[in-house]
Task: structure prediction
Amino acid sequence: MKIDKGFILSFVAPSMIIISIFGFIQRQDKKIFYLPLGIMGIAIILEKELGRQLKRQKILRKIKSYQKVK
Result:
């Protein structure tokens, strides 16, 4: 059975956010090493969601344009 690469990568952004939260809670000093990791995880999720919405709008516009032609 072949494992889909996209399926595995879909767990990367949530795991980055979880690691960032645990690291931020457990930090011993004032250095913020885990904050960029969390920001990147959130940015990946937002970018994917924005891409999905744009693709859906594009498909909807195509469907509406074909309905007008008929």
Summary: Residues 5-69 form one domain. The chain has one domain: 5-69. Residues 27 and 62 are 51 Å apart (CA to CA). The mean pLDDT is 85.
